[in-house]
Request: fold
Amino acid sequence: MSIPKKRLGKMPAGEITDHKLYLNRRQFIKGTAAIATASLLQSSLVRAAETPEPTFTNLVTGNYSTQESSTPFDAVTTYNNFYEFGIDKASPAILAADFPDKIKPWRVTIDGECDKPGEYDYDDLIRPFTLEERIYRFRCVEGWSMVIPWVGFPLADLIKRAQPNSKAKFVQFTTLYDPQQMPGQRRAVLDWPYVEGLRMDEAMNPLTLLSVGLYGRELLGQNGAPIRLVVPWKYGFKSIKSIVNIRFVETLPRSAWMKAGPREYGFYSNVNPNVDHPRWSQSRERRIGELLKRKTELFNGYGDEVAHLYAGMDLKKYI
Ligand code: MTE
Reply:
């Protein structure tokens, strides 16, 4: 993510790590392009070999998985955006190493406009649902992308259990607010807690996942343990991490990023190569682990599944 200038002014410049600097720091790139290629290839092989054993058993292979190669486990778990644990890509893996062990049991409340609200322990929350593996493309608004084998279940399954009433037009999600466990929340980078939202039909779309793991293992802290959203046709910031509340609401929820930069981060934030971010183009993306940029696809390539949700909407207006 990129923080709008008005907020950026409040932060020491040294705290913002761009992609290139990060790669240097991680020693992915060592000088020349030739060496970079060799080292990237080599390190991906090493990392692929280091992918830990899966801990979930009996995962169902879900529909909608891409055939593209998955991004190495090491990259997925060390190059993160999780501002509650720092605004650079490397900090979450370090600062969230023990998260959320210290705050177990993890509780999630489901409330608002529904007939079956409830407060659940994480284990009770997920028990009724069948866990699937879904390999999705994941495109960040900053211009990088990954392919991630998620473990999760359709959000629609949980929504059906909660039985939203006729007033429920949107679903609002909220991340834990706990500045003691989440040092990034001690600074006003965003209006904490992190909030996101979906229109009800987006939330019910079969692509929308509640994820509890990746690469066959439970989510690590840096990836949003113990439960997060994954909405593969939208920019990555919609996929809110470490959720504690799911609320059915009548009016459009204002997300943390809409508050931070309303002109830059809209409610819909569908991946769209034809609508640039005010400060950069969105037409291409860098797949982590690849040297050359590739073209970004409308709805991140999931148009067959989701284009109908936006029929008749001007996607240049409804960003
Ligand atoms: N959720 C919370 N609570 N806080 C965050 O900072 N960052 C978002 C999203 N979810 C974020 C969040 C952004 S910008 C991206 S790109 C994805 O998480 C990154 O997910 P990953 O680190 O698992 O790849």
